[in-house]
Design goal:
Helices cover about 55% and strands about 5% of the residues. It has about 300 residues and is mainly alpha-helical. A hairpin with a 2-residue loop joins strand 3 and strand 4. The strands form two sheets. The chain has a two-stranded antiparallel ribbon with strand order 1-2. It is built from 14 helices and four strands. The chain has two domains: about 90 residues, DNA polymerase, domain 1, CATH 1.10.150; about 120 residues, Intergrase catalytic core (hpI Integrase, Chain A), CATH 1.10.443.10.
Length: about 300
């Protein structure tokens, strides 16, 4: 990447951080996609013309549709920024490839499988062993509150307050939302806190820092195996999916679910409706005015 292009990318990323509240991980992903695109454009990222942009489709033909879509989205936003800032008079991004993507359906666990995980975790926690109490608290917050793995492991020690059925969380994109805390989760965390240093910074400490997402992933898979569930089927994100699908099954409103999950776009939340199609059909057949009309 040329020095001029690098300066443009730096300005663009500064804007994303300041105005859009982009996370460090998001900024790294944008920088990587723009650097790879600059290589494909022979170092002419900022000065690329529609012909050069149109040729990216051939260069990217061996990449997955998801990668092509992500890089195209990064370039569209980048060139839109250059136009808005008066650094370009034209936007060449109309020539970018637009691969068709199908959103994959989330992996889920049924309620009986989740119940088995809880039964096993509660049986182990009955011994009051510190790690068993920690694991139960992790499970309660993953499935009971729908937290992302990164949100869970970075919870401060005093995140939950006694008698307060929710916590205010700063999640993805630095957006704040209310997260429900069940009485079960509160009780599990209270038991675990007896083993957390009073002056510690994190609710789930590990060494001098907090528990890592990788370690959380490993813990959840071991808990699944202990409950007789194939470990490869379970992850922290699968438990978040279970939180969403089981709430929807219980009658939760899609907008409420969007708020609880912290989704910026309700289209992301709508994917959970696939698991509840049978219930929705039954609801229409039972409640729609035409359902009671004789033929």
């Amino acid at each position: 990447m040329t020095p001029d292009d690098r300066a443009l990318v730096d300005r663009f990323l500064d804007m994303l951080a300041a105005e859009a509240g982009a996370s460090p991980n998001t900024l790294v992903a944008y920088r990587n996609d723009l650097e790879r695109s600059a290589e494909a454009l022979d170092g002419r990222l900022g000065r690329a013309d529609p012909d050069g942009i149109g040729g990216l489709g051939k260069q990217w033909r061996d990449l997955s549709p998801a990668t092509v879509a992500r890089r195209s989205a990064a370039l569209r936003r980048f060139y839109g920024f250059l136009v808005d800032e008066g650094l370009r008079t034209d936007d060449p991004s109309a020539a970018l490839p637009r691969p068709r993507l199908e959103r994959p359906l989330p992996r889920i666990l049924d309620s009986d499988e989740v119940a088995r995980m809880f039964e096993e975790a509660e049986a182990r926690a009955a011994s009051d062993a510190a790690l068993s109490l920690r694991n139960l608290a992790l499970l309660e917050l993953l499935y009971g509150s729908g937290l992302r793995a990164s949100e869970l492991v970075t919870l401060p020690r005093n995140a939950l307050r006694k008698g307060q059925p929710f916590l205010i969380l700063r999640g993805k994109g630095a957006k704040e939302r209310l997260v429900p805390i069940s009485s079960r989760a509160e009780a599990a965390v209270e038991r675990w806190l007896e083993h957390v240093p009073t002056k510690g910074l994190w609710l789930f400490p590990s060494g001098k820092k907090h528990l890592s997402r990788v370690r959380l992933f490993q813990i959840v898979r071991v808990m699944a195996a202990d409950a007789g569930i194939a470990p490869e089927r379970v992850s922290p994100h699968v438990l978040r999916h279970a939180f969403a699908t089981h709430l929807l099954s219980g009658g939760a409103d899609l907008r409420v679910l969007q708020s609880l999950l912290g989704h910026a776009d309700i289209a992301t939340t709508q994917i959970y409706t696939h698991v509840d199609s049978a219930r929705l059909v039954e609801l229409v057949n039972a409640r729609h005015p035409l359902a009671t009309r004789s033929r």
